[in-house]
Amino acid sequence: MTVAVYAPLKAPDHPVPSGDRAMARALIAALEMAGHDTQVVSGLRLYDGRGDAELQADLMAKAQMEIDRLLTSDQAASWTHWLTYHNYYKAPDLIGPVVCGALGIPYLQVESTRARKRLVGPWAAFAAASEAACDAADAVLYLTERDSQTLRRDAPEGQRLTHLPPFLARTALPAASDLSGPMLSVGMMRHGDKLASYTLISQTLALMQHPDWRLDIVGDGTARDDVAALMAPFGDRVQLHGLKTGADLDAFYARASLLLWPGVNEAFGLTYLEAQAAGIPVVAQDRDGVRDVVVGRHPAPDDGPAALARDVDALLADADVRATAGAAARAEVAAHHLLPAAARVLDQALRDCAP
């Protein structure tokens, strides 16, 4: 099978790293592991982060031009399926449903969300397009239980809904951390939810009792100065290392004692899977999405930084507890969150939708 792949929020070859880009790339790797050919058919970004009606109209016009281009392309005849990653009200798939309808091929979505409350307000046009695209899908693969609730509620008759656990683009686990290094936080430095997580981290550090804690922070972005200001009171106990990827990031996971990331409004957070694959215990809050991938019990958001500090102190104080928690997390990732498991789910979804 040859699968046309499209990601309206961020293309797999987008220059800026993010969880969305990583997940799009992982989907391609899983499809290819299952024996399917893939073609990234468009790099058009259909994203409106402000609720701008004029921008939405402009993007709709560009999407129509892209539809015309794709339907007259030489590659279109080879596509047996179309898969769209992350259709939602700020980045609806304006292209896939039309192309699939014209070509008569199955249309699948991964990590789509429904938000009917957005059908009024500044994103109304995009929200309507997102809902229509979701309605048009033959199958929707959801990553978290939270997303599945509205997908089930609003699914048209005959639409297939399948759980695809979030996964890493790896066939096997990396080397296990020796758990002897500093704590680790990994996250883009953006205003909004990411900065809220960094704020909680700084509040947690101020309440910790363990005398010898240290923290490495990996990430960068427009809120870097804000993050630096939050961490300044802790002096050289906190080190900001900037953006790291690949082997450079793996080196941090290879020695981290634990991962501290509260997870404010995370969809799920690939950093949790990366850390747990290396056998690193995670301290996070018990939030929708986060609980789909983080092993163990974690404090409720209402318990605030004091509860996070208690969990961190307990892990730092006992190497055996850290090792046991990390081993349980590592086993969970091996069983459910690597490429082989994802490839099986995606392969079956394609076969179930075969024309």
Automatic annotation (TrEMBL):
<dbReference type="Pfam" id="PF13692">
    <property type="entry name" value="Glyco_trans_1_4"/>
</dbReference>
<dbReference type="InterPro" id="IPR050194">
    <property type="entry name" value="Glycosyltransferase_grp1"/>
</dbReference>
<protein>
    <submittedName>
        <fullName>Glycosyltransferase family 4 protein</fullName>
    </submittedName>
</protein>
